[in-house]
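Page 42, continued from yesterday. The earlier attempt failed because a stray header line got pasted into the input along with the sequence. Redoing it now with the clean sequence only.
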Amino acid sequence: MALAGGVAHTFTFERDGPGNNRFPSFSVFNHLKDTMSFTTESHPGVCDGPSDASRGFVLNHTMLRVKDPKVSLDFYTRLMGMRVLRKLDFPEMKFSLYFLARPGPQTPPDDIAERTAWTFEQHGVLELTHNWGSEDDPNVKYHDGNAQPQGFGHICFSVPDLDAAVRWFDENGVTYVKRPEQGKMKDVAFIKDPDGYWIEIVEPARLKALGRPGPH
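This time it went through. C-alpha cells are written below.
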C-alpha cells in the first residue's frame, strides 16, 4: 500500500510469465479520481462548488489606462514580449483599446471579426485604454493604485529565469519598486511600466516555500 496526496492506494501486478512482473494495475480507495482533482483551497467564504450558471466563465483581461500608447506599446511588446491581438477604435467616444497577450500555441484568425471574438475567449489578456489626446495633456497622470488611497495593486509576469529577466530590465533602464534581493520577500521583483503601474516579476520554481511559516 502507498500513500499519494493523502489517499490510500493498493497496487497489484499482472504477470506475463513466472516471476515476471509487468504492468501495475490499481485499486484505488476514497474516490481517488475526485480527491486527486484539485479545484480550490477551502477558506471562509469559499463556496463548496461553483454554480452551473458560471460554467465556461473565463477571466479574459485586465484593463489599464495609459497616457501615451506609443510608449506603452513599446514597453509591453519589446520588453515584456507581448503581441497586439486587436486594436478597437471608438471615434464617437474618442478612445482606443489595445488587447495584448503573450504568444501562445494557437494561431489567431486572420479574419478581423473572428479575431475580435477569439481575443475575448483568451486568458491573461492585457487591455490598454488610450483616451485620445492624453499624451499631449500635461495634467493627465493615472493613479497607480498603490499611492493613497490604495486600491488596485499590480499585474504579474512569471519568467523562466528571474536573474536573466533582471539583467534584461537593467539593460533597458526599467524602474524598480523592489529588486529580488530587497525586502523580506526574496526572489520577487516589482518594476514599473511607463505609467507607473506595478508589475510583479516571479520565477515559479523559486516560490515553492512562499507563504509557509519558517522554523521557530
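Notes: The first helix runs from residue 32 to 35.
Reminder to self: strip header lines before submitting.
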